[in-house]
Structure formats: C-alpha cells, structure tokens
Design brief:
The protein is 32% helix and 9% strand. It has eight helices and six strands. Belongs to the NAD(P)H dehydrogenase (quinone) family.
C-alpha cells in the first residue's frame, strides 16, 4: 500500500542504498499480482508423474530443464544477481503475509535454493546476505520472554533459520518497527531515521549466529544429530547453542535479533555456535 509504513521503510532503503551506489531492484508483490499458490501451473509442459503430483520433485526437474513458469524464473534471476535481499513486510499471524510466503514457496525451489547436500552454512546462497524488515501490531513488551506473545526470538526462528539460513544466506539481524500504527508521528519518523542510519553500515554488519553444520552427523544413519563428542563438550556450557538448538538450557539472549559479540562467545564458549534486492 503506497501510504503504508512498510512502503515508507521500503522507500528509505531504496533511497539510502542508491546513494551508496548500489543497484536496487524492488519486487512489489501486490503490485505485481504475484501468485501465492504453488500449483501444477508453475511447470511448463508435461510432469513426470501426473497421477501422484509432488511439487518439490516436479519443480526440481522443471528447473533443471528450464520449464518453470516465467514469473518464477524472473524472480530467481533477481535472487541470483543479488548481494543482499531485504524482506519488507507487516508481521501477519507471527509470520509472513500470504503473498510473501507464496514467493518463498515458489521462488526458493529445490535445486535452485537448496538441496540435501547444500543447506544451512553449506547452503547455495552462503555468499549472499538476507534480512527481515517488518512492522508489528504489538508493542515490544508483548514479545518479551515474559510477554503475552512470547519471546520474539522464538517467533523469528522458523523464518530466519528454517528459511533464510536453510538456504545458506548470511542472516542479518532483523529491523523491527514496533507498533507504528499505534505510535505518534514523531515516533514513526524516528523509526525511519533509525533505519536510514543503520542502512549506512548495513552490509558491514556481522550476521546472526547459528549452529554450524560441522557440529552434526550429516547422515541418515546418524540422524543428523549433534555428534556425541560435541554434545559432551557443550554439556558444561551455561546456554544452548541457539534459539532452536537450546539443548534444554536457557536460550542465548537475543539470538535471533542481534549478532553475537565477542563477549557473548566468551560467556558460552567459543565453539558453541559457530546488488541489493527488496521483496
């Protein structure tokens, strides 16, 4: 929506990054009328098994054969060329709006964005950066560990680890605009100015910390579990590895909302964790 706060945040990013000399490409999914549903129509020509259609398998082969629909191919080309992807959106039901989730389902297809051999820090997009920039309807206190919505780090885990990090992206800390709809004009202006300031050094920021693949037995026989010697080594650490890999311990503070500092790593042991695009 042109008059929305999300549009204003997008425009700030567009202006500031262009001033820094970056080429910025915007995919306005609503204006594009981007199709959210992952269906048989995403494949041009025949499918391999029409009686038991499996979207992931069919799009994998269609992608290898150049038979994905034109809108998917166009977006995948933008991803391939991007150095950083910023997802700008309002938080809906603790997640993405449907059209953005549809973009993820259709564009980040198997073979293009991930494979069993290439995932997480070994992922296809390990040389690219991505981040979430979003608005909430809730105040920040509502997303504290003792707030009614629960810890925002837990909310962000499936989005940042399960999607972005899974595809290999270096995930920058999210830009969260807390409850702009319920904030006075001066507060909204300050939010945008803070975003503009952050953008000046955005690409130099360290990414969030996730558990490294090398800590796990990456085989079906080993169940993709933490290796026993790693688990033993981590047993004496006071915190879990990450928000998701908590190991039954307290979560590392702000694991999904800010990059770890040297002090954080010392506190939990060093081995505990080891062109621009806007959607």
């Amino acid at each position: 929506i042109p008059a929305s706060f999300n549009a204003a945040a997008r425009d700030v990013a567009l202006q500031e990054l262009k001033l820094q000399g970056y080429e910025v490409v915007v995919s306005d999914l609503y204006a594009m009328n981007f199709k959210a549903s992952a269906t048989r129509d995403d494949i041009i020509g025949d499918v391999r098994n029409s009686e038991h259609f499996q979207y992931g398998e069919e799009t994998l082969h269609a992608g290898m054969e150049g038979r994905l629909s034109e809108d998917i191919v166009a977006e995948q080309r933008k991803v391939t060329e991007a150095e950083l992807i910023i997802f700008q959106f309002p938080l809906y039901w603790f997640s993405f709006p449907a059209v953005m989730k549809g973009w993820i389902d259709r564009v980040l297809s198997q073979g293009f964005a991930f494979s069993l051999e290439k995932m997480y820090d070994n992922g296809i997009f390990k040389d690219k950066k991505a981040m979430l920039s979003f608005t909430t309807g809730a105040a920040p206190t509502m997303f504290q560990p003792d707030g009614i919505n629960g810890d925002i780090n837990v909310t962000l885990w499936p989005l940042q680890n399960g999607i972005l990090h899974f595809c290999g992206f270096q995930v920058l800390a999210p830009q969260i605009f807390w409850s702009p709809a319920h904030s006075p004009p001066a507060a909204r202006a300050a939010m945008l100015e803070g975003w503009r300031t952050r953008l000046k050094g955005l690409l130099a920021e360290n990414p969030l910390t996730f558990a490294r693949c090398e800590l796990f037995d990456l085989s079906f026989q080993g169940g993709f579990l933490l290796r026993p010697e790693v688990k033993e080594e981590l047993a004496t650490q006071p915190l879990g590895i990450s928000t998701g890999h908590h190991l039954g311990k307290p979560l590392p503070p702000d694991n999904q909302t800010r990059a770890a500092t040297a002090e954080d790593e010392r506190g939990n042991g060093k081995k505990a964790c080891g062109s621009i695009r806007t959607v």
